[in-house]
Design a protein that fits this description.
The structure holds two protein chains of two kinds. By secondary structure, chain A is mainly alpha-helical. Chain A is built from two helices and no strands. In chain B, about 75% of the residues lie in helices and about 0% in strands. Classes of the chains: A mainly alpha, B mainly alpha. The interface between A and B is medium-sized, with 24 and 23 residues. Chain B: It holds the Pfam family DUF6529. Chain B: This is DUF6529 family protein.
Chain lengths: ~60, ~140
């Protein structure tokens, strides 16, 4: 009986944790954040490549 | 398994895992205090109810530890960047298994305080090697 009570309490803690985290962050927030981070990194890389290309072209013109 | 964990945590496995691991550590401190009362190292309360609560809370803690370990393994696997975290976690699971075996067999009871202390230390190392970094937002 005590073991069942402990199991139920553990499951309740897990359920409450998931509910609290989801209510604070929103569902699938980590996925969205990771995607946004990847997108930002990709944009930064593109900008850097463009700057390097422009610098190279300026160097050639001089 | 990974999809199941991601679905059940509604897409926030790292956050749920970190919060559950923090609950585990807080309960481990509580367990330590209960054991200290049970073994009369703390002069408060009575040993019998302290041991009863230690046992009941310990069963709950064992379930939480296994759930957190499964979540961690299924989502992150064995990551070489967190070697100490991995070693401490595997050690904690082994010590937990030995402790449960000793309690169930009813023999070797004199080793329980040492096993309990070792389990607490390993859980603390497991938590401190990942959770603070994540909670500080450095490991999203």
């Amino acid at each position: 009986m005590q073991l069942i009570g402990s199991l139920v309490a553990a499951l309740a803690i897990i359920a409450v944790t998931i509910a609290v985290v989801t209510s604070q962050l929103g569902p699938y927030k980590e996925d969205t954040e990771a995607r946004e981070q990847r997108q930002e990194q990709q944009e930064e890389r593109l900008e850097q490549q463009e700057e390097q290309r422009e610098e190279a072209e300026d160097g050639r013109e001089d | 398994m990974e999809d199941f964990v991601v679905d059940i945590t509604r897409g926030n496995p790292s956050s749920v895992k970190t919060i559950l691991a923090s609950v585990v550590l807080a309960l481990a401190v509580y367990q330590l205090l209960l054991a200290a009362i049970g073994y009369r190292k703390l002069p408060v309360g009575k040993p019998e109810p302290a041991f009863f609560t230690h046992r009941a809370s310990g069963d709950m803690l064992a379930v939480l530890i296994v759930v957190v370990a499964l979540m961690c393994l299924s989502v992150f696997g064995f990551d070489g960047d967190y070697m100490l975290h991995m070693v401490a976690a595997i050690g904690a699971l082994l010590v937990l298994a030995v402790k449960i075996a000793v309690v169930r067999s009813g023999r070797g009871g004199r080793f329980l305080p040492y096993l309990g202390t070792l389990l607490f230390l390993l859980l603390a190392i497991t938590w401190f090697t990942v959770a603070p970094e994540f909670l500080a937002g450095e490991d999203d």
